[in-house]
Amino acid sequence: MSEGLSTLLVTLVLTVLLGVQAQRAAAGSRLRQAFTIGAASMLVLTFSNLLVLLNLGGEWLVSLHTLTTALFLVSILMAVIALFNGEFQAKLRQARELVAAERARQTPSRDAKPTAAAEDHDEHRP
Questions:
Q1: What values do phi and psi take at 108, rounded to 5?
Q2: Residue by residue, what is the 3-state secondary structure of 16-70?
Q3: How far is the C-alpha of 83 from the C-alpha of 20, rounded, in Å?
Q4: Separation between Cα atoms, residue 108 and residue 111, nearest integer Å
Q5: Angle CA 65–47–35, to nearest 5
Q6: How far apart are CA 62 and CA 95, in angstroms?
Q7: What are the φ and ψ backbone dihedral angles of 38, each rounded to 5 degrees?
Q8: What helix, strand, coil percent values describe the chain, rounded to 5?
Q9: Burial, 35: exposed, middle or buried (Cβ in 10 Å; 0-12, 13-18, 19+)?
Q10: Closest CA to 8 of 64, 61, 54
Q11: I need a labelling partner for 124 at 20 to 30 A (CA). Which of 15, 46, 82, 109 fits?
Q12: Taking a C-beta distance cutoff of 8 angstroms, is the pair 38, 18 a contact?
């Protein structure tokens, strides 16, 4: 597979993934706008990669890449605004709960008796 074709496929997959995330985000939210603009950015990049693959474009490529960069930066800005507006609070709360549950699962119970190996280890301490 040529490098141009693999790049085209990767950008196309990223476009689809960002589009799916945009659909999952709440309607009218900044997060949805961020994912939608990010998907548009990747779509423009996919189109420019297609032009490169077909040996077309020339002067248009600079304009397309500039547009891609601008859209990408706007999508990042929208994601930051969403973060400060509290749109990530539910996901952050869920992540905190998962981390707390994992820590509770990994730390031994305080009521558990120490094993013989642990007692031997304690006896050898200076």
A1: -70, 155
A2: HHHHHHHHHCCCCCHHHHHHHHHHHHHHHHHHHHHHHHCCCCCHHHHHHHHHHHH
A3: 19
A4: 9
A5: 75
A6: 41
A7: -60, -40
A8: 80, 0, 20
A9: buried
A10: 54
A11: 109
A12: yes
Task: Count the alpha carbons within 13 Å of 93 in the hemisphere toward its beta carbon.
Answer: 5
Q: Pick the closest to residue 38 from 3, 2, 5, 82 (CA basis).
A: 82
Whether the full predicted model's pTM is greater than 0.85, yes or no, is no
Q: What is the pLDDT of residues 76-125, one digit of tens each?
A: 999 999 888 888 788 788 899 999 999 999 987 655 555 555 555 555 55
Tokens found for residue 32: 């949805």
Q: Please tell me the distance from the alpha carbon of residue 6 to that of residue 122, in angstroms, as a whole number.
A: 58
The C-alpha atoms of residue 126 and residue 115 are separated, in whole angstroms, by 20
Phi, psi of 45 (to 5 degrees): -65, -40
Tokens standing for 68? 């891609």
Dist. CA 88–CA 119, nearest whole Å? 46
